[in-house]
Amino acid sequence: MRREQRECVPERPVGRHRVDWREWAPLTLLTLAVLLGAALRLAGRRGAGDLVWAAVTLVALLPAAWAVLRQLLRRQFGVDVIAVLALAGALVVREYLAGAVIAVMVATGRALETYAQRRATRDLRALLERAPRQARRRTADGRIEVVPLDRVAAGDRLLVGPGDVVPVDGTLDAAATLDESAVTGESQLVDRGIGEQVASGVVNAGAAVGLRATRSAAESTYAGIVRLAEEATARKAPMVRLADRYAAAFVPFTLLLAGLAWLLSGQFVRAVAVLVVATPCPLLLATPIAIVSGLSRVARRGVLVRDGGSLELLGRARTLLVDKTGTLTAGKPRAAETVVAPGGDRDEVLRLAASVEQLSPHVLAVALVRQARERGLALAEPSDVTEEPGRGAAGRVDGRRVRVGQLAGDPPEWARLARERAELAGWSTVWVSDEHGPLGAVLLEDPVRPDARRTVRRLREAGLTRLVMLTGDRPRTADQVARAVGVDEALAQCSPQEKVARVKAESARAVTVMVGDGVNDAPALAAAHVGVAMGATGATASADVADAVLTVDRLDRLADAVEIARYARRIAVQSATVGMGLAVLAMLFAAAGRLPPVGGAFLQEGIDVLVILNALRALGGGLRRRDVPPATRELLDRYAGEHARVRDVLGRLRDTADLVATRPEAPECLPALRETHRRLTDEVLPHESAEEQQLYPALAGPLGSAEATSTMSRGHVEIRRLVDRIAAHLAQAADGPLRPDQVPDLLANLYGLDAVLRLHLAQEEEDYFSLNPADPAGGPGTDGRAGGESARDRAAGGRADEKGARGGPGGADAHGAADDGR
């Protein structure tokens, strides 16, 4: 077992990188040679010293001249030409010390560039180093065999040993403790339960655990990340775009000034002095250091950017086009409400539906089963299960023939109302029926990501002036999501071709970013200046053409990337501008004969040190979001988890309000009202009180002020007031039925409490729980049965737009997500 584990886990520890002395050898040797020349001069051997300095100059000149020549043959013109002319001019006028200093300067630039690139791509290389090559697969007779990763297929049963990297996306056979830091950036270990989806690339930090593969290695999450990392590490640290834009004006100006100085004074040494102080190290050093620092920082935030050119464009972007499904929304349906026939039981309807759907891989079936398990329902083992494409699934559960999918025949009145409610809300409907007719329906929604609205606000603050949502969904649903997240415009029912056309139109007006996750988003991502793919969802087609990939399923990391890109670009421009400004000033003094080549060389070194120190500021700063302390993160996790229970009470609250509204005289009305009040008192109010006392004070630091939670505190007061009003009505009713005069005010309190609680929970998840750098809490559901959905559930497959619809063309009745037209 130990031998097999070593085969599955990379031998080189991730994060350990030895210093490559070959990177610094040229600089070290040239520096020693310059010092040797100085020592010879001090020893009175002037000729020998000059000879050493001339050799240093020549050693630097030859490779630099060859590089410039190759650029010119490719019809490229960059800033290196100034350094070549300065080195050659120093030799011509016998300013050997100046040439040697320039040589050291150029060698310093190359060494720093190589080091900065290696440092910036360290996180990317770590991904490559830890990529598994083999997997342990269970055979039919129960043995464990080690097989190459490309032989693993969906459905295979694997064994993931302690310390192993999870090789493919799959579902756990048992509870496991995982280290997801390499994929999500989350440093804390996380616990996953049996049946939960796990993305490839995470590390098993506990005991060996079984895994059922849901994707092959090539289709898994980690494979797409590794492909991107390979491309990113293969590319040179790209300072060229920014530096050469400056060079287009700076190089001709330098040559013109040097020529004028020589022409007007008749002294060639003045031209050399101008070239020496014009050596563009602020461009060759500061610019790449700032850009690759930005690349490194965004990689640590879970965003892989292909190259610095893409990062620079991201820092200049003014327009954002964003797909809806899977980007602004979770991309996976979840149960929003369960509607039952009069006298029916919600839990029983959900249990029957989930029991039938246990064996189905369909995205909606997964949502139903997850919903039932979260409710703690005991699922039965179905028999005689059949599945008809376009219609749904059927099976026998506890002796009853249960059908899950479309509704056959004319619906009764309650079912017609449920269908209308789903259509108004833009939800999908899954009907549950038996031999006698419909028992109920589960209404499914694609919830807006809790961090979506905050991300949109941060993007506006970062400088994006136009944000547009593109979707293939219906206009009603598109408008609802657009209002929820705060974009400027929503374009509904867009085909992939229309998305590409819109991207091209926006790109013609400003630097444009396109964000998407589905296969049909790939053409639009490729057409944008910067295409950003939600790679954590496993959409490899979009990730393969994108310029950047979010490896963690959080939209707010996009805002992190934009803020870091803008900051890194601002530092790069600032360093280059200040450095060149000082160089131009020195060039004027050199042209006037006030600055000899040697003095200019040392002055240029001082300018270089200044701009390099300024460029290093890009290693930190720029992010508007404050870090959340670990203790506060634990509180956020705790109270986010409690929201599922609060929403369950909300579902009962709505049922009770409907009962009071329709049958206040019914004998079951008052007991239901008392039970709802008991749960409000025992479960909801203690939760709100604990938040007030523990969570809100802890959020004062990350939010900047205790006043930031004052609105939520006012919501707590209103919730308690409404609960107390319900208690007063119960006291008046005693053991008798509700009086007719009580019903209007009681209904106002019940429905008012329902609305206030829903809004309060949604605001907390958007404004507070999305602060947690770990998985954000799931968005609010209508009856709260689903609770929060974590990124781990979304990351390992089952996206609505990549599965075949089972319900056929039935609008909201379709047993397939009625979202994005996919």
UniProtKB/TrEMBL annotation:
Residues 778-787 have a biased composition (Gly residues). Residues 790-805 have a biased composition (Basic and acidic residues). Its main location: membrane. It comes from the Bacteria. InterPro entries: ATPase_P-typ_cyto_dom_N, ATPase_P-typ_P_site, ATPase_P-typ_TM_dom_sf, ATPase_P-typ_transduc_dom_A_sf, ATPase_P-type_domA, Cation_Transport_ATPase_IB, HAD-like_sf, HAD_sf. It is a multi-pass membrane protein. GO terms for molecular function: ATP binding; ATP hydrolysis activity; ATPase-coupled monoatomic cation transmembrane transporter activity; cadmium ion transmembrane transporter activity; metal ion binding. Signal peptide: none annotated. Pfam families: E1-E2_ATPase, Hemerythrin, Hydrolase. Residues 131-230 form the P-type ATPase A domain. Residues 637-770 form the Hemerythrin-like domain. The chain crosses the membrane at residues 24-44, 51-69, 246-265, 271-292, 571-592. Keywords: ATP-binding, Cell membrane, Membrane, Metal-binding, Nucleotide-binding, Transmembrane, Transmembrane helix. Residues 770-822 are annotated as: Disordered. The keyword Metal-binding applies. GO terms for cellular component: plasma membrane. It is found in: Cell membrane. The keyword Membrane applies. Belongs to the cation transport ATPase (P-type) (TC 3.A.3) family. Type IB subfamily. This is P-type E1-E2 ATPase/heavy metal translocating P-type ATPase. It comes from Micromonospora palomenae.
